[in-house]
Amino acid sequence: MSNSYKEYASKEYVDSKTPPIATTEADGLMSAADKSKLDGIAAGAKVNVQADWNVNDETSDAYVQNRPFYITEPQEVVLYEETIPANKNDITIPFALVEGKSYTVIYDGITYSNLICYQDADELRINIDVCYIYCYLPDCSAIYVQDSTKSHTIKILTVDRAYVQLDEKYISYKPGYVVPNMYGAEIFNTKDNIATGNLSHAEGGYTQALGNESHAEGDSTIASGFTSHTEGCFTSASGDYSHAEGEETIAAGNHQHVQGKCNIEDTADKYAHIVGNGSLSNRSNAHTLDWNGVAWFKSNVKVGGTGQDDTTAKTLATTDVATAASDGLMSSTDKAKVDTVPASIADTTYTAARYRASALVATETDPTVNGVINWTYE
Q1: Number of domains the chain contains
Q2: Helix (H) or strand (E) holding 216
C-alpha cells in the first residue's frame, strides 16, 4: 500500500478507488479545466504586467492597444535617390506609386513639381519630358529613361505626414478625426484632413484647419490663423483673418490676402495684398499693396484701352528713362540740352534748323553776318 493510498485510506475516501479533484483546500487530481487554464499561461508570465506606452511590439504583453496619435505638418519625404548609369533605360525602384498622389522629381538638377500620379490602362504613371515613372499594378515601380546614352541623376520625393505618439492627456488627433473637445469642427471628403479649431472646417485632401473658425480646402493646405482661409495647393494662412490661394502661397500677415504662386513671405505684416510670381527655388512678387495704400509693380503699369496688350493703352511713367522708342522719365542729359534752347525758337535769329546738330559753334572765318552770329554744325 502506497503512502498516498494510506493517506486517502485514513480519511473519508477509504472506499474510493480514485482520489478526488484538487481544491484550494485539499490536494487532489488536476481537473481538465485547470489544465486548460494552465496551458494558457506563458512560461515566466507575471501577474498584472505593467503596460508600457513606448512598447511597439504588438505581441508583447506590455503593448498598449489603440494608442492615440497626432499627425505632423506636411514634410518632404525622399522615396528614391540614385544615379542611373548610361545604357540603362528601365530601372526598378523599391516603392509603389499611389494614384492621385502628388510627387516631385528632380532629374539632372531640374525640379518638376506637383506631378500627379494617374492610371493609364493597367499601370500608374508620372510623366516628365525626359523620362516617365510607371507601376504595373500591383507590382513595384520602375523608371524609363528616354536618353540612355549617358548617366542621369534622379530624386523622387513626395509630401507626407508623420504619425507621432501624443503625450498630452491622450487626446485623439488622427487624420480624419476631429479633436473631441473642439466645438463644431467638421471634416469632409477624406479621412486625411484635420480640423482642430473650434468651428473649423477641412475639406479636399490632406488639409488642416487648425485655427479657430478656420477653413482649409484644396490639396495640402494649412489654415492656422484665427478665421483664416486657404485654398489651392500647398498654401498656408497663418495670419489672423488671412487668405491664401493659388500654389505654394503664404499669407503670414494679419488680414492679408495672397494669390498667385510662390510669393515672398511678409514677416513684417507690411502688405494688405500680395501677388506672387515665383517658384519654390526662387520666390518673388509681381505686385504688393501696403497698408498705406502704396502699390508696387514689378513691371510697367498700363491704363486705357481694352487691356495691357491693346496698342492704345498708355504706360504710366516709371523710373525708366525715355528713349526714342518708349516714354519715360527725362534724363539729366536731355534736361541740360533742353535748357540751351530759347523759350521761343520762332525768333529769326534762331531757326529750328540750327538746332538739329548736337553741338553748335561759331565759325572762325566769318563769325557774324549782318551782326548775327553765324553758327555752323560741328
Answers
A1: 3
A2: strand 215-216
Q: Are residues 144 and 85 in the same domain?
A: yes
Residues 23 and 81 in one domain: no
Output the pLDDT for position 169: 39
The residue type at 247: E
Q: Is residue 79 part of a domain?
A: yes
H helix or E strand, kind and range, residue 34:
helix 32-39
Q: Other CB atoms closer than 10 Å to residue 348's CB: what's the count?
A: 6
pLDDT of residue 151: 92
Residues 9/1, Cβ–Cβ less than 8 Å:
yes
The three-state secondary structure class of 230 is strand
Q: Mind giving me the DSSP string for 164-196?
A: EE--STT----TT-B-TTSTT-EE-S-TT-EE-
CA distance 178 to 65: 20
198/224 Cα distance (integer angstroms) = 12
Domain range enclosing 14: 3-39
Query: Is the residue at 293 inside a domain?
Result: no
* Residue 106 CB partners (closer than 8 Å, separation 6+): 112, 153, 154, 155, 157
pTM metric for this prediction: 0.43
Residue 124, domain member (yes or no): yes
Q: Which residues pair with 236 in a beta bridge?
A: 222, 250
Residue 58 lies in a domain: no
- Series of mean pLDDT values for 10-residue runs along the chain (378 residues): 48 59 85 85 75 75 69 74 89 84 91 87 86 75 88 88 50 44 52 78 87 90 93 94 96 96 94 95 94 91 85 75 76 81 56 46 51 51
* Chain Cα centroid distance, residue 37: 56
